[in-house]
Amino acid sequence: MYALISCPGLDNKEMEVNGKDELMQPLLKSSDSVAVNISQPNGLNHNGDKKVKTVMFKIRGIECASCSNSIESMVGKLSGVVSVMVSPLEGQAVVRYIPDLINAKTIKETVKDTGFEVDDFPDQDISVCRLRIKGMACTSCSESVERALLMVEGVKKAVVGLALEEAKVHFDPNVTDSDRIIEAVEDAGFGADLISSGSDVNKVHLKIEGINSPEDLTVIKSSLETLEGVNHVDMDLEGHKVTISYDPDITGPRSLIQCIRDAGSGTHFYQASFYIPPRRRETERQHEIQMYRNQFWWSCLFSVPVFIFSMVLPMLPPYGNWLDYKIHNMLMVGMLLRWILCTPVQFIIGQSFIVSWFLDLLFRFYVGSYHALRRRSANMDVLVALGTNAAYFYSLYIVIKAFTSDTFVGEDFFETSAMLISFILLGKYLEVVAKGKTSDALAKLTDLAPETACLLTLDGDGNVISETEISTQLLQRNDVIKIVPGAKVPVDGVVINGQSHVNESMITGEARPIAKRPGDKVIGGTMNENGCLLVKATHVGPETALSQIVQLVEAAQLARAPVQKLADQISRFFVPTVVLAAFLTWLGWFVLGQAGIFPKSWIPEDMDAFELALQFGISVLVVACPCALGLATPTAVMVATGKGASQGVLIKGGNALEKAHKVNTVVFDKTGTLTVGRPAVVSAKLFPGFSMEELCDMTVAAEVNSEHPMAKAVLEHAKKLRQNHGSPPEHVPDVVDFEVHPGAGVGGKVGDRRVLVGNKRLMRSFNVPIGPEIENYISETEQLARTCVLVAIDGRVAGAFAVTDPVKPEAERVVSYLHSMGISSIMVTGDNWATATAIAKQVGIQKVFAETDPLGKADKIKDLQLKGATVAMVGDGINDSPALVAADVGMAIGAGTDVAIEAADIVLIKNNLEDVITAIDLSRKTIYRIRLNYVWALGYNILGMPIAAGVLFPFTGIRLPPWLAGACMAASSISVVCSSLLLQSYKKPLHFGG
């Protein structure tokens, strides 16, 4: 059975069909995030004080009314249950409950306790939340977080992005919630903060003035909750702030502010202003950078003297002689100073040193390694803890031994511990700074929208009464805004008055300004060039194309590319292998030294065999850090997707990015893809037996219901032609039995006459005879690269229209460039063979499949795939959707239909074919960069581990001290991130001027 549950994690607006053809709306629709809301309006119960949810489920084993009564009695006694209805005939139960007091899981278990079986809750009621994850250092960490999330009951899907430091979790709100999910992350040893949930889609933050008592806040909250369209109200009592979730189709920010003002009465006057919460991501990043910088400097404050006392002054007699002064027995001044200075670095440096530190932050690497070992995984913290502890506690043993013995001689390694931690902190600081730059392109996109807008108030006749400058965040749907020359468009909308040219390069990358007239759409964030425009807002807040692009890119950055599986597989056994290698290195050198197999001259004067072996072991531990390996893929994907978005190419995740680099065959649709997509009729032909009026009237009646661009061109031409041959009828006759024949045309009955409008294939399928005269006209038309649209009335061809669709100016160069890249080009179209062949010849495509229906296009792609080709499909129409899904990589032209954009892997925002090359070339550059990152990451380990293990020491005397091994480890992560950042300099291989 299915459960229908109101899901607070999703906006009810997603369930409505609202403006399907409006700008860019479907980019982020999620097929796996569907909810049905059957709760009362605003989610309130009959008392209006608590949110109520409804759950339906199947109960098996009900045999009579007595069974249903017992279930109703048991469940009805539960605190928080509002009502229970059980149908004994259908075996269904409907329970209304208050989620603040009880959850659906408890209700289900109560029914089970009565002795009946209850089906599992359905997966369609899914909420989504995004979390900021703190403390992840490598791929092993992200996998640990992912496993911890998936172990939470009710979590259906979890994706963790290491470079983005975020997690996206799909969960059943009946079973768990975001608080429990955060607890699971923290229990795994990481920090977690809630970034957003599905209910954050339309939310406004307001600061209230005039609050004198808690009763004022209660009055305001009650007023807001009774306002139609308000879903949820959160009050901040201390800060006098309120956060409101609302339905943008019903209300908006200004209405909410007015509601707060109206709530005042008598001496109580309330004012509300827009409040912008600080950007958490940027704030946290700056805090993290500052934290690591401070930690590094504090660490240096202690580590540098330790290094001088152990490595510099002893080499400069007599300046260092005082360090050898004995305090008690063999305990010397230098040893005591090194111990005192090293201890804060080992146990305190790592978090706040100046004021106070929390217990879980006190031992940075210890806490991390404890949680890693507890969850049976190992990460960088384990290696650092083992390496520094081995050095520190052995040195502490030396101190104690020297203090208690008057003959003992030993060398401490305090400088190893202190310097190692200092270099690790330096590496983390530089890594965080570099990682912050990987999302620079995305940050630039988010900053495109202007902060203010000029709102117009109009009277009933459309005359401007007043102009008000307000925050862009306060704009509501259907507002009319004025955009002067040089100003940015604040939100998506439609021009209702004025003419201008708008520079959309910041969104689409198109350098040439686009002419805008009444009826044209404008995109938020673009620049108005010359004229003044009056625009009616259609999409505001998170619905705008700019917000959709940002959300799409963020989702893409969170998704893992398949190439990252290599790092994931390596990370599972990498750290345990390193620990084992370090132990064997120490054991090997120690045993060989004790057995006298290598000469004692190899051992430095201030060491013995045990100390030499220990240094080699520690060096192996710290040089083999897995951080760089985990950063190799996500940092490159982050930079590439952000850079692609800034250039007009939206790549939906690492999977699409990786597939695109393998493409060796590109299949193009014709109309709207290779051609401009705005067909025009260039001539019309009337055949004997029919009048021109008759031909035009029947054509207009049949084509008025078709959305095909070619049909619209024929319709407009037929209307003009009818006006030239007398007055057209007042009303277009209705069509009954209207049918669309994909790839062929349309048909229906106009009055008592059967009308068909389409190509030759449509005529043959209905057995309409095509005589020699008609064949000759079709042949002549198709040789001119025109499409012949035939009109048949009552089984006879009455006339024909010659339609042409100009080829895009860049098409020929794009096909030629693809050929130079080793990629073959193919055309698949529903148009006739002659027209398709002529267009293909014009652009340089050798292979053509014509007169193909939508499913046939998908079949052609599957045939190519069976022959070993990796296929990219480029299309723009609804009829291209099956082929876009069937292809290895679907590329939708951004000016195309919503369905095509939704089905595609890559969206080309501009209506320009050059971005096909950009998408493929960018993916190739990115995959090359990822592989190079792996070379950097693994190269350090492959070269560093043998050197750290002492392979070169017997022959050259070269060894890698632990502190230097730590520097190499930090360098590997920094080099990988910097390598990914080089993608920021990516340039398009082709660029066509205006």
Structure summary:
The protein is α+β, with helices and mostly antiparallel strands and 994 residues long. Helix content is 43%, strand content 19%. The strands form eight sheets. It has a seven-stranded mixed β-sheet with strand order 24-36-35-34-25-32-33, sandwiched between helices. The chain has a six-stranded antiparallel β-sheet with strand order 16-15-17-23-18-21, with no helix packed on it.
Question: What is the fold's blueprint, element by element?
Answer:
Layout (H helix, E strand, L loop, with lengths): L52 E8 L4 H12 L4 E7 L4 E6 L6 H10 L3 E2 L8 E8 L4 H12 L4 E7 L4 E6 L6 H10 L3 E7 L5 E7 L4 H13 L3 E7 L4 E6 L6 H10 L8 E4 L5 H33 L13 E3 L2 E2 H15 L11 H4 L1 H11 L5 H25 L9 H24 L2 H7 L5 E7 L5 E8 L8 E4 L8 E6 L2 E4 L1 H4 L5 E3 L4 E2 L4 E2 L4 E7 L5 H14 L6 H30 L14 H15 L3 H20 L2 E3 L2 H7 L4 E4 L1 H5 L5 E7 L5 H12 L5 H16 L10 E7 L3 E6 L2 E6 L1 H6 L6 H12 L3 E7 L2 E9 L6 H10 L3 E5 L4 H11 L3 E3 L4 H13 L4 E5 L5 H6 L2 E5 L4 H6 L2 E3 L5 H35 L4 H4 L5 H20 L13
Parallel strand pairs: 25-32, 25-34, 32-33, 34-35, 35-36
Antiparallel strand pairs: 1-3, 1-4, 2-3, 5-7, 5-8, 6-7, 9-11, 9-12, 10-11, 13-14, 15-16, 15-17, 17-23, 18-21, 18-23, 19-20, 19-22, 24-36, 26-31, 27-28, 28-29, 29-30, 30-31
Q: Please, could you describe this protein's structure?
A:
It comes from Rhododendron griersonianum. This is P-type Cu(+) transporter. Belongs to the cation transport ATPase (P-type) (TC 3.A.3) family. Type IB subfamily. It is found in: Membrane. It catalyses: Cu(+)(in) + ATP + H2O = Cu(+)(out) + ADP + phosphate + H(+). There is one protein chain. With 994 residues, this protein is of the alpha+beta class. 43% of the residues lie in helices and 19% in strands. It has 32 helices and 36 strands. The strands form 8 sheets. The chain has a 7-stranded mixed β-sheet, sandwiched between helices. A 6-stranded antiparallel β-sheet has the order 16-15-17-23-18-21, with no helix packed on it. Strands 26-31-30-29-28-27 form a 6-stranded antiparallel β-sheet. A hairpin with a 5-residue loop joins strand 15 and strand 16. The longest helix has 35 residues, at 914-948.
